[in-house]
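Researcher: Structure prediction, please.
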Amino acid sequence: MNFGEHEGLHFDNLPESEKLRFSRPDFQAQGGESWADVSSRATSYFSLLQNKETHLMFTHGGLIAAYVNHYFEG
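Model: Predicted structure follows.
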């Protein structure tokens, strides 16, 4: 995710109220992406993969959630 104005900040240093915002489905980083943007970008990438191939990805929870949504919706 492009965190916009939050890019480079350490999550643990944010106020609790700010941390909670990141987990909301409607979160939009100021000057950056929303979770919908991440999902759209991930779906575009996943659609390029061939179903019969094996893929190994190292990623974070946001992209994993986008993949799971893509897999079960697509």
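Model: The longest helix spans residues 61-73.
Researcher: Thanks, that helps.
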